[in-house]
Amino acid sequence: MKDKDYFLSKAKENFPELKYSVLTPDITEFIGLNGESILLDLGEHLVGYFSFAFDKLDVFVDAPVRLIIKFGEDMREINDDFSEYNGVLSKTWLQEEIINLDFPQKITMPRRYACRYIKITVERTTRPIRLFDFSFCASTSADITVLKSADTEDDLLNKIDLIATNTLKECMQTFFEDGPKRDRRLWIGDLRLEALTNYYTFNNLEIVKRCLYLFAAGECNELGFLPSFVYETPYYHSGATHIEDYALLYVVSVCDYFEHTGDKEVVNDLLGICKLQLESFKTTLDERLIATKQNGWFAFIDWCPGLECITALQGVYLYTLQRFGELLKTIGDEDYEKYSAFISEVRSASENYLYNGSKGVFVNASDNYQFSVHSQVWMILGGVITGEGAKKLLISSLDNKDFKQPVTPYMRHYVVEAMLKLGMKGEAVQYLKKYWGGMVELGADTFWEAYIPDDLDFSPYNDRMINSLCHAWSCTPSYFIRKYGL
Ligand code: RAM
Questions:
Q1: DSSP for 367-430?
Q2: pLDDT digits (tens, 9 = 90+) for 320-330
Q3: How far apart are CA 114 and CA 171, in angstroms?
Q4: Is residue 179 lining ligand 1, measured as CB closer than 6 Å?
Q5: How far is CA 183 from its chain centroid?
């Protein structure tokens, strides 16, 4: 297997070019005193750097001026009182700055922000001041000139497509970020969905290669699983979690990349790591060939509170085995037979031990008998149940209060994928329109990290204020619309 230095050098070779564009809001000047504020609307969600100038009027300002500058991805965020924040993630992700200015000057704020709205409040001044020359320098590595419009006649799908491509564009920086407001890092689950959508929209192959190599350079845990995320700055560093479904989806991302590009060189570089993920997973199976719980945060699947993940995880494993088997066959790898033979064994085990015949559903056999959409979807994607039976099962689980429902666009992606796999194109379109369309109706400029239609305060982190409203894993409607001609 190639070493870390090699992988990092390949990641560097594929550094995508950032494109910058400068936008000036309609308001050009503001004169204000203590407590007064101005709201700038950029007209669209942007990621980048904010500058403005500050000057005195005719009277000398004899003490520093204090401004509070708040950046909001939407107006709700602008109106939130951040002092009431009570979430589990660091408050410093909330985009608000207090700055003290000693004399007239032009300022470029040092952080990069993700926002549509900017509110500047004059906290303290001894005299009226003038703020002007507002500008926002936006960055992205997506080339919007290559983006063709989606070929759909449906107005809502068109709107959804626009917002979805915008979401992806915003998250495409020097790598695929999960969210440009937060966490601004590269996670495997997000990478997979961003790359998929990118193939049908901006088709920037450099950034995909870069991300695949950045993970290849990561430090695997004692079981052999890749880190679930990596940091690029201030220096390359592996994340401390090793979520197994994400480790498996790395392999799927390599398969997707090969399917899209036919690029054998990259696949050859990454084949060893892919095999290691599957071999590692195999060691965690019990004697029945069923996935087991490991210490710590071993599976993600979705942010649904209280979700039991074993059955879904088993499905992710089967899904990965299937895709990887196909890849090995295409490239003529001798391990192909070994992987394919194993798939049917694991499928029958899943049917025997995870399916509750009397209830007619897949349950989470690990400790309680929980019903979830997640388990049904992943068993379908893993090929454990097919055809009419699978359709019925899926339909009966959706919007059914007895089943845990997905709470993120991430998991909703896999629901739609399962529907399309079963040939339920009409249902897939309806499901997609209802869920993503719900965000459109609420005025979204970009799609969100988490969304429960009847609980707009839901947050995986105990406080909605920290939620990311431009989250890459929600961009896949563009993939579905374009790939399947919806
Ligand atoms: C969140 C990240 C990311 C996701 C992980 C599991 O914190 O924002 O999108 O992949 O959780």
A1: SS-B-BHHHHHHHHHTTSS-HHHHHHHHHHHTT-TTSB---SHHHHHHHHHHHHHTT-HHHHHH
A2: 999 999 999 99
A3: 10
A4: yes
A5: 10
Cα torsion angle, 350, 351, 356, 361, sign: positive
Report the nearest-CA residue for atom 3 of ligand 1: 178
The CA 294 to ligand 1 mean position distance, Å, reads 19
Does the beta carbon of 300 sit less than 6 angstroms from any atom of ligand 1?
A: yes
- What is d(CA 77, CA 66) in angstroms, rounded to the nearest whole number? 21
Distance 178 CA to ligand 1 centre (A): 7
At 41-71, the pLDDT tens digits run: 999 999 999 999 999 887 777 899 999 999 9
- Residue matched to tokens 């107006």: 75
- What gap in Å lies between CA 379 and CA 301, rounded to an integer? 13
The per-residue pLDDT for 151 is 81
199 and 212 Cβ atoms separated by less than 8 Å: no
Ligand 1 neighbourhood includes 176 CB (under 6 angstroms): no
**Global pTM?**
0.97
DSSP label of 220: P
The pLDDT of residue 358 is above 90: no
| Digit-coded pLDDT (tens) for 165-200 | 999 999 999 999 999 999 999 999 999 999 999 999
Nearest CA to ligand 1 atom 9: 178
Using the mean position of ligand 1's atoms as its centre, give its distance from the Cα of residue 406 in Å.
Answer: 15
Residue of 175, 177, 183 with the most ligand 1 atoms within 8 Å of its CB, for mutation: 183
SS3 assignment, position 289: coil
